[in-house]
Design goal:
Chain lengths: 199, 727
């Protein structure tokens, strides 16, 4: 531990809204406001203090920022007006890019599944998304999950909210190349903003 | 002595008094029982016409003593101002018709009649106060201490047109303010440290035609009183000057708590300094990156807040300025070289006022703040290793730093603690020739006793004011305000003194205590109990009153067992005669009489307010305002009990550490004296409940009524006094 500026500076340079971390006054209002308080390793207050204490690995491998549901309770209440929710997501993103994010952390797995699903065709294929989520823990568990949810699934099919034909390819964007170019550009802009060569 | 006494009573029937009270019989009471030579009734006494009636009669009939039976003595003070007439105000409005519940017409009338009797009895015992004949006319102001506070006081007083004598013990003016690089900002924007401005202040003071400066000097002796102090100033070289002074401001500031008393925090190690030590390094660096004493550039620095502060084994209090000071000092590093790591370790960061903006600015500059409790600081490598518990992360942590700065506290430079005999030989600041001791009484931790909430600069030595950190811990902005306030108080004191009038809180009062020495037994109680050290001792060991030092509280009068101390308009007799004037119903009447002696500073206004808010209380109460509970002489209470009162209640201010007594010790002394009352009660064969004391604040209008009603109930239960008819 150092209580030096190194890691704080790294966060400022690489994390969305990271330059706000130093402004936290450790009042603990966010920690007290977060509905996830009891369920995660570190409250936003602690995460911000850990950053300042230079606890780099502990911060980046924490599961906390993956647990944030974007309820915005903390942002609304923070007396120092820190964009806490955004910082939490920025930290998650940065940890992920560095490969330090906790492996197998469920919200992280789901986020990745969602992203991969989306990027493939430019549209979210709900059926495939659901199934890959059900089967993430192996085939047997997948069948169990599917059976447990079957009434809802059938109901949705009857109401034509899910099309079983989507399982075979499914529809996508017409200009998929254009969409991929947009995503690439967005990443480039974001990296430039953060002063990175590549993500 | 007044030649011929001519009395008159004026009764008002306005404000509903005429509807609720039988005015004709009140007039008769004033005439017969009160023996007033003239009695007039008027429907609107405070009107121009009513006031003119009184004025004219004072002129034509040479009225010397007048009773006004109308509203409280606290209302219509301008209309009813007759400076050449002894005056008693009978409170029929706030004190009777507004507080007696409907349906009690008979006892209400009795209450009003008693008050008229009391007013008439009082006024006949009064004399018109003529002002202190021993008053001094000196108006020069002495300022002791040439730091920021002292310089500010001196300049403020000088600019107002008063001559100032400024005494500083060091060879140069400026004090701490000249030993720091920059100060915390006084004005917006609250982002960066600002120049101290001390050189400009010093040159203004040095060039001022009204200010005479003595550096390298100390006070050898202070004698006299406001308006006529004689002060001997001694130079280190041995020369001596004597000056005549009207009032004194003590702005002797503070010393830094000695860091060698903090070995666990590294006090004494080469790379551990206090805040003053860091200022030295910053002054040397002149805005460039700061280097250590040994010349090594500082790349990392840790600040430890509350070093030996809020700590029972060192200083138990918070010095108030040190959080902002450390923030400022961390900025010295960041502003010169942003790469320097600066961390401030605090348990509670206290940045009152605009300090919050300053704190935020330091965060923006990258100063790291962490809540933690430091356990040790040791030498390590080229610098120090600091171990602490991070109170947010809840874990043991260490920090390595080139330099550690300890935020130690302010220790007041107050001189001798006159209440501790072992301190008698310490170096005194004022060297007062007062019987009570060489310096001013202290409140706590060595800070001057001053009425914290209401009258901050007032000390317990009249005409001597404390300003700056010698009064309470404070920062530079607060010291500037304090110094200005004290200068104004000093000016008020010399003006009042030159007119023979009292200083605060009875500012303008012309009465003063006189003592009939023939009766004095030399018991010394007055000398000891006077909260303001006004009474010395003469060669024959008799009390020697210094009227100009007196605040007119009457504590001496309350203390005197042989009752030889009095004021022209407030004496054992003015109150005693009122107590006796009450018409005492017999034991079987079921009409008890409760005497209430109410402090006129807080309790009496609260009682008036109870009236304004229509909070009813028992019509058996008979209230007499007193200057201070300290002025209550036990003779009043024994007289009251002997003449058949069923209960005596004293209403005064809070005493103790957080006292609210306007005269500091009055309510405490009263409480102490009343503690001895139980024996007297037993001797008289009376229940101890027959005398009681309650504490009220000026805002307690609800409580005062409840206190009286509860007490009336207690009296009902224990029954009527058996003493009736003997007095
Ligand atoms: S937005 Fe995220 S971090 Fe903030 S309170 Fe909601 S869940 Fe907690
Ligand atoms: S509410 Fe804001 S200032 Fe308070 S601890 Fe959370 S982030 Fe820090
Ligand atoms: S006790 Fe009060 S009234 Fe008496 S001398 Fe002292 S200050 Fe004056």
């Amino acid at each position: 531990m150092s209580y030096r500026n190194d890691f704080l500076k790294e966060v400022e340079e690489n994390v969305e809204e990271g330059e706000w971390v130093k402004m936290c006054m450790q009042c603990g209002v966010c920690a007290g406001s977060c509905p996830f308080g009891p369920h995660w390793e570190h409250s936003p207050q602690k995460i911000f203090m850990m950053i300042r204490a230079g606890e780099r690995i502990q911060v980046l491998s924490s599961d906390s920022m993956w647990m944030c549901t974007s309820c915005y309770n903390c942002i609304v209440r923070c007396p120092r007006k820190l964009p806490i929710t955004h910082i939490m997501h920025g930290l998650a993103n940065y940890a992920h890019r560095l490969g330090l994010a906790p492996k197998g952390q469920p919200t992280r797995v789901f986020a990745k599944t969602f992203w991969d699903n989306l990027v493939k065709t430019g549209r979210v294929n709900e059926l495939k998304l659901t199934l890959s989520h059900y089967f993430r823990d192996g085939f047997i568990q997948g069948i169990r999950n599917a059976l447990a949810m079957k009434d809802i699934g059938l109901g949705m099919m009857k109401a034509r909210r899910i099309n079983p034909m989507e399982l075979f390819g499914g529809h996508g964007l017409q200009d998929l190349e254009g969409f991929h170019a947009i995503v690439a550009k967005a990443r480039e802009i974001e990296d430039r903003k953060k002063g990175l060569k590549n993500g | 002595m007044m030649s011929e006494m001519k009395t008159a009573a004026y009764l008002c029937s306005g404000c509903g008094l005429g509807d609720k009270l039988d005015m004709a019989s009140l007039s008769k009471v004033a005439q017969k029982a009160g023996k007033m030579a003239i009695v007039r009734e008027h429907p609107f006494l405070c009107s121009e016409e009513g006031v003119k009636l009184i004025h004219d009669e004072i002129e034509k009939e040479s009225v010397t003593h007048a009773v006004i039976a109308a509203c409280s003595r606290r209302s219509k003070t301008e209309a009813f101002s007759f400076p050449e007439t002894a005056l008693s105000r009978v409170n029929l409005r706030e004190g009777v018709i507004w507080v007696v519940a409907e349906g009690h017409e008979e006892i209400r009338q009795e209450m009003a009649e008693d008050y008229v009797r009391m007013g008439c009895a009082e006024v006949k015992k009064m004399k018109l106060p003529r002002g202190n004949p021993e008053s001094g006319k000196e108006k020069n102001i002495l300022v002791v201490g040439g730091g920021l506070s002292g310089l500010t006081s001196a300049l403020e007083a000088a600019e107002t047109g008063y001559k100032v004598v400024l005494v500083e013990k060091e060879t140069r003016l400026g004090g701490w303010a000249s030993k720091i690089w920059k100060r915390v900002p006084f004005s917006s924007p609250y982002n960066d440290p600002q120049n101290t401005g001390i050189l400009e202040l010093i040159s203004k003071v040095s060039a001022h035609k009204n200010i005479e400066i003595h550096v390298n000097s100390a006070i050898l002796e202070t004698s006299g009183a406001p308006g006529k102090f004689v002060v001997r100033i001694g130079k280190a070289e041995g020369t001596e000057t004597e000056v005549k002074i009207g009032a004194i401001i003590q702005a002797t500031g503070f010393s830094s708590y000695d860091i060698s008393k903090l070995p666990e925090l590294g006090g004494g190690l080469p790379h551990v300094v206090d805040q003053a030590g860091l200022e030295q390094l910053a002054i040397k660096a002149e805005g460039k990156p700061i280097a250590r004493e040994d010349g090594k550039p500082i790349r990392s620095v840790a600040f430890v807040q509350c070093a030996g502060q809020r700590d029972e084994s060192h200083l138990p209090y918070c010095s108030g300025h040190c959080c902002a000071t450390s923030i400022k000092q961390a900025m010295y590093f960041k502003d010169a070289h942003p790469e320097v790591d600066t961390v401030i370790i605090y348990t509670d960061l206290r940045t009152p006022g605009m300090g919050e903006d300053f704190y935020r600015s330091a965060q923006e500059k990258g100063v790291i703040f962490t809540k933690g409790k430091v356990s040790s600081v040791e030498n390590a490598g080229e610098g120090c290793r600091l171990k602490f518990r991070d109170l947010i992360l809840d874990e043991e942590s260490t920090i390595e730093a080139d330099l550690v700065v300890l935020a130690t506290g302010q220790v007041p430079n107050s001189g001798v603690n006159i209440e501790l005999p072992e301190e008698r030989n310490q170096v005194s600041v004022l060297n007062l020739s007062y019987r009570q001791g060489k310096d001013m009484p202290q409140l706590k931790y060595g800070f001057m006793d001053s009425h914290f909430i209401c009258f901050p600069y007032e000390t317990r030595r009249t005409g001597i004011y404390a300003a700056g950190p010698v009064r309470r811990p404070m920062d530079m902005l607060q010291a500037t305000e304090d110094a200005t306030g004290a200068a104004l108080k000093a000016i008020q004191a010399v003006e009042n003194a030159s007119l023979g009038r009292a200083a605060h809180p009875r500012s303008g009062d012309l009465s003063f205590p006189t003592v009939r020495l023939e009766g004095c037994t030399q018991c010394k109680r007055c000398t000891v109990e006077c909260p303001f050290g006004a009474i010395d001792e003469d060669e024959k060991r008799f009390p020697l009153f210094n009227e100009s030092r007196c605040r007119r509280c009457g504590t001496c009068m309350g203390a005197c067992p042989v009752r030889v101390i009095s004021f022209e308009n407030y004496s054992i007799d003015t109150v005693g005669s009122q107590i006796k004037a009450v018409d005492m119903p017999d034991e079987f009447s079921e009409k008890p009489r409760i005497l209430i002696l109410a402090c006129e500073n807080d309790a009496y206004p609260a009682l008036d307010m109870a009236g304004m808010k229509n909070r009813c209380y028992s019509a058996f109460a008979r209230i007499i305002p007193v200057r201070c509970l300290g002025s209550v002489n036990t003779i009043w209470i024994t007289d009251a009990l002997n003449s058949g009162y069923d209960g005596v209640m004293m209403m005064g201010c809070k005493h103790g550490d957080n006292y609210q007594c306007h005269f500091v010790k009055g309510s405490e002394l009263a409480n102490y004296r009343m503690g001895k009352m139980d024996d007297t009660l037993k001797q008289l064969g009376l229940e101890t409940e027959r005398v009681t004391t309650v504490e009220v604040a000026i805002t307690d209008h609800e409580k005062v009524a409840a206190f009286i009603n509860d007490y009336a109930e207690t009296i009902r239960i224990i029954g009527m006094s058996p003493m009736k008819g003997f007095g």
